[in-house]
Specification:
Elements (H helix, E strand, L loop, with lengths): L7 E4 L5 E4 L1 H12 L4 H18 L5 H24 L1
Antiparallel strand pairs: 1-2
Helix pairs in contact: 1-2, 1-3
């Protein structure tokens, strides 16, 4: 993904503003995996890496914003799911 095209502001649970580029998103998602059990962590890290490779050539800024927003929401949901167990 072209990082110069991308600057998305999202509010997380603690209301901290983060500006996410594709690389920042990738690092954020990998760090979120560390909050999961080891088997789930391996699975989701692999999935994140594959998705990153799949979308690396995306150039539409609106589509990139959608991908980032969806990824953050999914990460929150997954972490919450495993923390409730």
């Amino acid at each position: 993904m072209n990082e110069m095209l991308l600057a998305t502001v999202r509010f997380l649970n603690n209301d901290t503003k983060l500006v996410m580029t594709s690389r920042q998103l990738y690092k954020y998602l990998l760090r979120q995996c560390e909050r999961l059990p080891s088997d789930a962590c391996k699975h989701y890290k692999f999935s994140i890496k594959q998705s990153y490779k799949q979308h690396i050539s995306e150039s539409d800024p609106e589509r990139i914003k959608e991908i980032i927003a969806k990824s953050i929401d999914n990460a929150k949901w997954i972490v919450k799911k495993y923390n409730q167990k």
